[in-house]
Amino acid sequence: MAEVLLNHDLAGQVRALSAGTRPQPKVADGAIEALKQAGLPTDGLHPKDIDAVMNESIDLVVTVCDNAREACPIFPRPIPSIHLPFHDPHGEPLESFLAVRDDIRTRLVAAVREKLGLQAAAA
């Protein structure tokens, strides 16, 4: 959800890529539904291993769960990072995914905007 929310809410300012140290076989149905209910695109979403993004041009690493923070790999060059944990709603009802979606939108988008010195979107 973080990848989609960052790419939507900071469109034209960032290109977010999501990857995990131990990704699930597929994106959770609850995550897809939570994004769809917010009118956000879900086509082509799939879990990626960190190796899939290791050679990308990365300006900021964001860890959103404590185990990822501790297992985060060493990147080829120093990269600024932030850690902002979120509840993992895996296996929970849709309401949990909706709450996490809204929490990501509120806290993570603002934290990335601040860390990268991005301007808020015009109203």
UniProtKB/TrEMBL annotation:
What SUPFAM superfamilies does the entry give? Phosphotyrosine protein phosphatases I
* The keyword 4Fe-4S is annotated on this UniProt entry: no
Question: Which Pfam families does the UniProt entry name for this protein?
Answer: LMWPc
Q: Which terms under GO biological process does the entry name?
A: response to arsenic-containing substance
- Listed InterPro entries: Ptyr_pPase, Ptyr_pPase_sf
The Phosphotyrosine protein phosphatase I domain extends over 1-114
| CDD domains associated with the record | LMWP_ArsC
Instruction: Cite the entry's keywords alphabetically.
Output: Arsenical resistance
Record-given protein name: Protein tyrosine phosphatase
